[in-house]
Write a structure and sequence with these properties.
It is built from 13 helices and 2 strands. It is mainly α. The protein has a two-stranded antiparallel ribbon with strand order 1-2. Helix 5 runs antiparallel to helix 6 and helix 8 packs across helix 9.
Length: about 290
């Protein structure tokens, strides 16, 4: 039996094409069956809407496609390309923490699309496989466009902080660092600009808050590099033991919530949350929560 979900999501098209691929022989036979041929002959001028093609025209097109010996190869190629994106889509819709995993997962899809090869025997075009590289580049460009469309600073900052990727050099990537800076800046609640006719005291206070924000963001980047290099407070084994249970975006929910604190007042930092989950310990005379 053919599966035909509603036309609402990319994955439903994949389900429908997968079903067609599995039942292609049965579909071809059904199109040539006496019952179907008679029904089309009796209703050949029927249309779904006044602008739609006639049933006879649609039947002829479907029959021509089903009898094309290259159809199975074409279906398989489309499914191979779609499989990568469908798996990513299902991963993003799962119940687990996935936002911090999305950027690297999307990168992997890009690389796999670029690595797809096509032999002459697998080519669904009569002219051969020579135009596959052009089609492949177009597919990669489409995926990249959708990546850019759906990209958020949460994904970039989460990827940067995710313990699973701590040994990667994401901090050297301009796009990822910009996402991190934007997220940190928003976390610290940037001050609202004063009105044009505000007093000098109000404007001075605004400038002071802006300078304070710059300092806090700079401190966050210093702490980030310590985190990436496993230095200072992040050099302790318990930090990385607990990090295995934390996603990058869960860290973002807690990181620098209260900003830098004076020496001796405890660590309101990534470390304090990596060492958290009910664990309380003493570190250099300061209590980590």
């Amino acid at each position: 039996m053919l599966t035909q979900p509603g036309p609402t999501r990319f994955a439903t098209v994949h389900i429908g094409l997968s079903s067609l691929s599995r039942n292609l022989e049965a579909v071809s036979k059904a199109l040539l069956s006496e019952h179907v041929v008679k029904y089309v002959r009796d209703n050949r001028n029927q249309r779904a809407t006044p602008e739609s093609p006639t049933l006879g025209a649609l039947y002829q097109e479907a029959k021509d496609v089903s009898q094309n010996i290259l159809l199975p190869l074409g279906l398989q190629l489309v499914l191979n390309c779609m499989d990568l994106v469908v798996k990513l889509s299902r991963f993003s819709d799962s119940d687990g923490p996935t936002a911090s995993k999305m950027q690297y997962s999307k990168f992997q899809v890009q690389e796999k699309l670029k690595a797809l090869t096509l032999t002459e025997a697998e080519t669904p075009w009569e002219e051969g496989a020579h135009n596959w590289p052009d089609i492949q580049q177009e597919l990669v460009a489409i995926h990249r466009h959708r990546w850019d469309y759906g990209y958020t600073i949460l994904q970039g900052a989460g990827y940067l902080l995710d313990p699973e990727y701590v040994d990667m050099d994401q901090h050297e990537d301009i796009e990822t660092m910009e996402a991190f800076r934007s997220f940190v800046s928003k976390t610290f609640h940037p001050p609202l600009p004063p009105a044009h006719d505000a007093s000098a005291e109000v404007k001075a206070a605004y400038e002071a808050e802006c300078e304070n924000l710059k300092v806090r963001c700079a401190n966050a980047e210093v702490q980030l590099l310590q985190y990436k290099n496993k230095e200072g407070m992040f050099a302790r084994e318990i930090t990385w033991t607990n990090a295995k249970r934390v996603s990058g975006c869960r860290l973002l929910g807690f990181v620098w919530q209260r900003g830098p604190r004076p020496a001796g007042c405890g660590h309101a930092s990534m470390c304090s949350k990596l060492c958290g989950h009910g664990i309380r310990e003493r570190a250099q005379g300061n209590e980590c929560y």
